[in-house]
Design a protein that fits this description.
2 copies of one chain form a homodimer. Chain A contains 5 helices and 5 strands. With about 170 residues, chain A is of the alpha+beta class. In chain A, strands 3-4-2-5 form a 4-stranded antiparallel beta sheet. In chain A, a hairpin with a 4-residue loop joins strand 3 and strand 4. The two termini of chain A are about 40 Å apart. The relative contact order of chain A is 0.13. The interface between A and B is large, with 73 and 74 residues. Strand 1 of chain A pairs antiparallel with strand 1 of chain B. Chain A binds a DNA duplex (17 and 17 nucleotides) through helix 3.
Chain lengths: ~170, ~170
DNA sequence: ACTGAAAACCAAGATTT
DNA sequence: AAATCTTGGTTTTCAGT
């Protein structure tokens, strides 16, 4: 028996793809899009939107999670806890930058640290209450770390996040 | 049911203490922690972990979502779709940086753009397949935008994210 | 806290590549 | 043969009283 239930899916037409080892095909991409709007959206609702059964959606999501392609999680806004001022801090280091990065990541005000190739050895995203807090953080916590040579701050004035999901690169 | 008025932060100004309306107490913080590990964790499981009934957890989560304190969503790793190389690009602009930021945010390779005060006017997080792609992006897409004066790239060699949730600032 | 309704889960079976 | 979607039955979770 064949199903005739799936008729109207505004979103994705699955199409025949001769793609062998794609990481995420069009349907999975559509599923991720749904989960980006609401990470707790019921599988059945997602299935209806992308033209799949509930179980199929669940299987795909599980697979995406297992292979680490996506993560479903609560994201918190630091402003929600009074950390209103954000900044990126460029840091130069003497010697190995990795232990410094690890030490930075422990600080309560630090959201992420990247080791980079370029004029800065590290870029740290931080969130503080105000300028005084920023100053205190830099002088007493960051510059005192062994190996830190200099810091340069870029205070955030505004931000724009990307709209949708990451898409496979154009050939 | 009675809904409590939540202070809107339209125009948040520095110096304002958010002490009056507690944004998230210890229990909600614990709930968020749970949802950070797994955004789809059942309310009952969360309740068991934090010592609350399932319904209470549900109400709190709903409130946190309504307030915009948290967002539950799928986060995608650009590497999952073949964008293996990441970088932060510092950009200087002639004139208003905001329209440039908006144009950048439209590009498929751009994850986020921040307007900053400092030597760079903009900082863009980007993800590309390889160095050639990076070069093409910078020369053909970014530097051609009206107003862009210069770019400087910081290729990511490693990254450390913060472990837990954002916590209220220490005194 | 209780209850009907919805959603998630599981194990085969069917289908397509 | 392998992978993927569907189906039907069961358990768990959800949302409103």
């Amino acid at each position: 028996m064949h199903s005739e239930a799936v008729a109207e899916n505004d979103g994705v037409r699955a199409g025949k793809r001769t793609n062998g080892g794609a990481v995420a095909d069009a349907v999975s991409l559509a599923i991720i899009e749904q989960l980006q709007e609401d990470g707790r959206r019921p599988y059945a609702a997602i299935g209806k939107a992308v033209g799949l059964s509930e179980a199929a959606v669940r299987q795909r999501v599980q697979k995406l999670l297992d292979q680490g392609a996506i993560r479903i999680a609560a994201v918190t806004d630091p402003r929600g806890v009074g950390l209103l001022r954000q900044a990126t801090v460029g840091i130069t280091v003497e010697g190995d930058p990795v232990p410094v990065a690890e030490a930075l990541a422990e600080l309560a005000e630090v959201g992420s640290v990247v080791v980079t190739a370029g004029p800065f050895d590290l870029l740290a995203e931080i969130a503080v209450t105000d300028d005084e807090h920023l100053l205190r953080l830099l002088t007493q916590r960051v510059r005192t770390l062994p190996g830190v040579r200099s810091t340069e701050s870029f205070v955030h004035l505004g931000r724009r996040e990307r709209a949708g999901v990451w898409r496979p690169p154009p050939p």
